[in-house]
Fold this sequence. Notes:
mainly alpha
Amino acid sequence: MPHRSAAHRPGGGRGAAHHLPGGSGAGAPPFCPPEPSGRAHPASFPAGRQPGADLSGCHLRRCPLSLAPTGGTDMLTIFRRDFLAYYRTPVGYVFAGAFLTLSGLIFYLYNLQNLSGDLLGFLSQMTLMSMLLCPLLSMRLFCEERQKGTEQLPFTAPVSLGSVVLGKYLAAACVMLITIGLTNVYTLIIAIYGRVYPGEWLVGYLGFTLQSLSFLALDVLVSCFAKSQMTGAIAGFAANFLLWMIDLLAAHVPFAWLSIVLGFISLYDRYEPFLLGQLSPACIVFFLSFIVVCLMGAARTLDARRFSEGGGA
Length: 313
């Protein structure tokens, strides 16, 4: 009776898609199965090598059937690809240029014109700019794939959708952190001609960074629903503005419980202690929790799209 390869298992689904060509007798070198794209993979294991001993260079190490841990590696691959894409296209430079230009204008009007060394006041004025520019980073993360017709790639990639979302978010977040770091040139100017308190500087920039990262996480969630980059950018700015001004709406709501809920999720109220020079652990936890919830919502949204559009079949 001919030998039956272990890869030829009964049943359908993804687990039965891999067949080992080239024979399966003793001593026959098991070849790599075709790549997910359909191309034949040229690599093969040397004779006598047991499958699974060394999968470097083979796409099986990224395959859902592989026992090799791939989540962290694939997330880093997504992060590296999207991060470099920001600087291989005009998006990263447009964002940094607009961010630094507007922040420089704010610094000139608020600090230099008034001969003021108020660093926290300067950071409070930069909030509107952060609300406006964060969608520039998020609009391309998922909307661009829809426009290019490659939106099924995240659904068919051998990595969890959570890793896809996290990798893309971290790429955009790093671009933002680099740009925010460059604004410390204004802090240096204040320190030269005035005085900067280290604690005030640390608390102020921590609050501004957490708030900006929260805006970005919200925009990533919004971009999962948008069908075009322009729609994603406009919807992201609208969502940012709503959560920034929601405390004003809470003051006019007739129901006390609803007013409390709206005030609780207001990003302005959570940012205010930092503008007063107060390090609030509760607000730090809120911002971090807000980011996690938005990213989890984005992953769930993509998962729902995968099944509704047939990507998970």
